[in-house]
Structure formats: C-alpha cells, structure tokens
Amino acid sequence: MARPSIVPIALTLDDRTGYTLWAPPWEEDGEEWQAFLGGTEGDTSVVHLFPSPAALADFCRSRTDHDLADHPVWPVVAGLDAADLTPDDDHRYDLDGVYDVLAENPDRWAVEELAATFEIVGRLAEVCDTAPDEDEDADDDDETVFESVAELMAKPEVAMLGLGIDAFVGRAGEDAWISLGGAVDELFEDVVEELDEHLDWTGAGTTDADSYPSASEEAETVVGDAETETDDDDDDDDDGDATPARATDRVPAGSTAAPVESVTPTSEIRSASRLTASPAAVAAAQEFWEAVGILPVEVVVPEGAGLTLRCYVEDEARFLGRDGEVFLFGTPVELAAFIAGDETHDLTEIASWAEVADTDTLPLPADQDRYDLTELAEVLTEVADGAAGLVDHGVLTQPVEGVRDLAEYAGLARVEELLGSGTPLGQAVARSEREPQAALRAEDAAALTGPWDDVVAEVSGALVFRD
Questions:
Q1: pLDDT tens digit string along 200-251?
Q2: 118 CB contacts (<8 Å, ≥6 apart)?
C-alpha cells in the first residue's frame, strides 16, 4: 500500500468550483482507511469545500475539528500555504463536463478524464456513506444511501474506463462508449443529487455559496497559474502531496474517514504503471483467475512496468515465460492477445491453461499481486536522506515476496545470497516479518539501498518486455 498522503483536489459541480483535501487509502493499526476533509452535520457526513486554495489553507492552519486532524501527515499539511494546496491537473474533477466528454468520440484524454471523475465520485460515496448499524442483519450490509452511484459504478462500461483507450477501440469499443453514454444519461443526474447532499459549500461555515468561482472563472485561474509556473520551473521544492508518514497510534476520527475494508477495495496500479483498473473490473477478473489457479501479476522495475502470469507448482513459482525469462506486457489487452496465441511457454502444460487460453476475461492483477520494486528503492533513499521514523519495516514485505518468486523461477542465486539471513537486507526482511511496524532507521536504510539496487538489477535481467 502507498504511504499515507493528503492530496488537494478541486470539484466542479453546478457551475461552481470548490477546493478540499483527500487522503487516499492508508493503513493504520492493521486497518485500511481513506478520508476527505469533512465532518458531520446532524446525521449527515459532509465534505468541506472552499472557494480558493487560500481559503482552504486558512482553514487548515486554524481548525482541527475535522476528519483529517488525526491523519499521520496532518501536521505537515497544516503548515502549507495556498500554492502548496493548489491541485494539479490530475486532481481537478469536472462533474459538469461529463456529458460533454461523452458527446465526443473517445480518445485517450477523454477516457482518462472520465475514469478519474468516476473514481473520485466513488471515493466520495464510499467515505460519506452511512454504515449499517451493528445489530442489523448481515443481509443489509450492501445497503447504501448512494444507490445511483452504486448502480453507475457497477456498469461494466465504467469498469472498462480503467483499461484505457484500448477498451473503446473497434466496433465493440464503439458500442461500449455508446452504452456508457446511455448509463450516464440515465443515472448521472441522480448521482450528482446524491453527492450534493454531502458537499458543504460553506467551507465549514467560513464562507457562502456566492463566493465560489464559476467554471469559466476557474478555467481562467488555472490558465493563469500555468503561465506563472513557466516562470518558476526552478522552484520545485514544495509538493502538493503531503507525503511520507508512518501511521501513528491515533484512530482516524469522524464520519468522512472510512475503513476501506467496509467498502469495495480499490485497485490502482501506481508508479510507472499505465493502468488504473476499477474495483469492479478487478473483482470480476479475480473470480476467474483464482478459479484457474493462475494469477495476473504486475512488476515495476526501472525499465518500466509490465504484466505477466504466475502460478505455483508444488509450492514453486512458475511464470509466463521460457528458459528462465519472464515475459512482460504493457497492457492487459496485449497480455490477453499473447495468451490467445499459440506460442509455447512454461505455463502451456498447466492443466487449466486451456481455460485461460479460451477466456475473454482480462488479466487484471489484485493489489497483493503487484510488485513495485522501484518504489521501495525510492523509499529507502528518502529514509536514508532524513525521513527516518516515517516508514516502517513492513514496506519491505511485498516487494521482497515478488523478487523471491521471480528469482526462484529464473534461478537467480545472487538474489538469494543478497537476501540471506546474514546480510543487512536479509536481517531487515526478517524483522519485517517479526515486527512489520518497527520504524526503519536512517542508518538501516542507507545500508539497504545498495543491496536492494543489486537485487532489482538481477531481477530486471530476467524480464523480457514483449510487444
């Protein structure tokens, strides 16, 4: 899981734009959480919106009566100014523009914009939804006050947005785009109404609805900011994301902080990956892949990100590949095309391979089957450079699991030597298994950086990126 962070975002709805903060999923005390800057008004969970980054910054400096006050990095955010709390282009969500985007032919930008917009809509609904009472019947667990949001997110065409423009190419893709437009025409007005009941356009009582910029005014502001940034390219010390932090003993408070396990798990393939798969798409895919015992896997190395398949034969890892080389593909569509072909490889003899070769289920990896080897290298460098105490040993667990499987399949003896019990890296891995929440010290991280780079180099040599 990504380290705790808080991200400034902008929402445009009903021709007005509001600014707020979103805390993507983070782990604390063994649970996964996500939250928005908000609280409770009566029995309703609300997200506070502000008419400008400056107004948002003023609120953050002066108030702690909200659901992000106990977030691990809130002390950092509370000290940021308006420039730091101005969303980048990837975190501006125009709900009013959804109809206009769908009225045009799909391209990469349109698909990415819709995917991001529906993603934040789902996040808002997840966090603001009212959880069922503990004494209610288990059958009521799926009840939601966001019925239209849930219905829209369940549409397969919405899930396809996470696969990128490739999902909307050709006759089948054109039909899917048209079906998506029909679903939006049918449901999106109700979706907006459900959301607006949980959006606080008073900035927690600090302003009034007339203070928010219209869409045209906001567009002029964004253009002006972009022109200003061209004159300040050298000033990149500040980052809009308040990043690395280690979870504290505090429990996230308030109604807009929600345990992720209480909602549909999110699967975002991050870092160098080009794929963002929706929760619905991943869940549907996993049902098939788990049944056949062959799972999609993503690996991220300095050379790039790629997808492959992995299974276990007598507890030994076996990948889609040949002669100790692991084949990687840039997208699920490319991997699916290879699977449907007739090239021989080390999974051909697996009993369930015939089902795999015949399926039209896209190979989408679950969170636990994604191994970003570059992110760990970055984390170790950050800790060694002074971020000690903000990262725990648990950060090693998943990447090491991935490299051990890859090394076992490819016969990389050097990797096992580097991970041996007598080495600094091996000792750190052992501690991650015993005490995953133990803080990673700067001196420890410094000793691990070189060996981990060697591990990644060894593994990278066994990966073959296929067209």
A1: 999 999 998 788 987 666 655 554 554 454 455 445 444 444 333 323 333 3
A2: 152, 153, 158, 161, 278
